[in-house]
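Input record (one chain):
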Amino acid sequence: MSVTEEFEQAQIDVKQLDRRPGNDVLLQLYALYKQGTNGDVSGGRPGVFDLVGRSKYDAWKALAGTAQTDAQQRYVDLVRQLRAAE
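The corresponding structure, as predicted from the sequence alone:
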């Protein structure tokens, strides 16, 4: 199975977790997903009153320069860890 296929399966698997991950893990999943699908972050950082938007932007920006396939693999690995911990 290719990394892309595993990445697509992990997107399905993460929605079937019994427990909702904590906010830090959710941000990590979000950033890895965005980097794995869109590449480096684009656009400006959300305003000071958009705390959630800023957190998401910052998490994604922290992955700048990471190859899309590397981000996809890290996403797959993280979802596997979450599933194993259930």
